[in-house]
Amino acid sequence: MAKTALITGILGQDGPYLSKLLLAKGYKVYGMIRRYSNPNFETLDYLEITDKIEFIEGDMGDESSLMNVVRTVRPDEVYNLAAQSFVGDSWQMAKLTTEVNALGVLYLLNSLKIFSPTTKFYQASTSEMFGLGNTHGYQDEKTSFHPRSPYGIAKVYAHWMTVNFRESYGLFTASGILFNHESPVRGKQFVTRKITDGAARIKYGLAKKINLGNLDAKRDWGFAGDYAEAMYLMLQQDKADDYVIGTGQNHSVKEFVELAFKYAEIPDWKKYIVIDPRFKRPAEVYELKAKPEKALKILGWRPKVTFAELVKMMVKADMKRVKTLLV
Fold this sequence. Notes:
alpha/beta; Rossmann fold; 2 domains; two-stranded parallel ribbon; about 40% helix; NADP
């Protein structure tokens, strides 16, 4: 009998890549979407899998709806990808961010404890939990948390609640502390996609500039498709645990811009970049870099797509999209 997986946040960036992976392995995939919303299936359509997923209505802010979802599906595995995921907005939407990213995880864990305690649970934790936490220039599972945004703070709550349900109730709950991961279906509000989409629009004469914030911030960027594989591997282990997932290398926003304009074949990128104070964060995290040795050793996971290949992939996809607007 085929395994069943429930994915919350399936319409975001990671949901489609994880869904495609699970479908290829013979899973029946349920995707949770909010009731009364007008769902946008663009990310799933991009990977041509929308019609292969069974959708079920639920809301991370409503514990009773999550209980109903879990009771109805009783999945073998749950991947909680649902979140208010844009760090920049979390200062203006701190309450919503907390309700979805923190309390929503508690509601979902409670639902599993009551109605499906044998289900394996994956929590999408984040490198933003580390914030200023640093261990010799990198972060691993032993690095202390010092979040610098409402988003990071809410994720720390969810992370420790996931650990608590594992240690208190014996549930199989694992957290993936994922560093920045991108793809052609990344939302345009995120800096990487903002850059590649902007470069494509400049290339074809549909834009003249890109407004950005801190060009010196450094992140450990990988490909979302690679990171979906790590999520899956965490739930295939005999013992639940937490894993840092990243490439072990970091690059500045400036480097991302330079490569994007290079692949778009636009000379002198500096002519098109405007530093806009509106995009400066109240509290900046200046540098994040993973040390994913535990994942490499126990999961056998390794990133396949390099930083340069990732940027090229995203630029190529956005140039193709923008070109269709000219027809």
